[in-house]
Specification:
Distance between the termini: 64 Å
Number of domains: 2
Shape: flat
Number of helices: 1
Number of strands: 6
Structural class: alpha+beta
Largest sheet: 3 strands, antiparallel
Strand order of the largest sheet: 2-1-3
Order of helices and strands: HEEEEEE
Length: 106
């Protein structure tokens, strides 16, 4: 009987740590824009994405563009549109060379 209870508690704790614990650490963190200048991929994420496999070869080179918000900005060099709280970081490399050139579009 004690062995079954111990097993049940152990399984419950394991499930809690795998499923629920990551959400508690993400609470309070803001959603951010990330961009890979190698392939031009843009994603929104709480944490910096994993390198993964980049279609341009090797792994992605993720750069943070800033917090996600309700204003739309577009890079005049590559056409990327991001929803951002403020003007996205301009020192992030653009896939078309140099840094992005952001213009607010709404």
């Amino acid at each position: 009987m004690k062995r079954g209870l111990f097993f049940t508690i152990t399984v419950f704790c394991l499930i809690f740590s795998i499923i629920l614990l990551p959400f508690s650490f993400a609470e309070g963190k803001s959603l951010k824009n990330y961009y890979c200048p190698k392939c031009g991929t843009h994603i929104e994420s709480v944490n910096q994405p994993l390198m993964g496999t980049c279609p341009s070869g090797g792994g992605h080179h993720w750069h943070c563009l800033g917090e996600v918000g309700d204003r739309n900005y577009q890079c005049s060099k590559c056409g990327l549109v991001v929803k951002s709280k403020n003007t996205p970081y301009g020192n992030v490399p653009c896939k078309n060379g140099g840094g992005h050139n952001w213009k607010r579009i709404s």
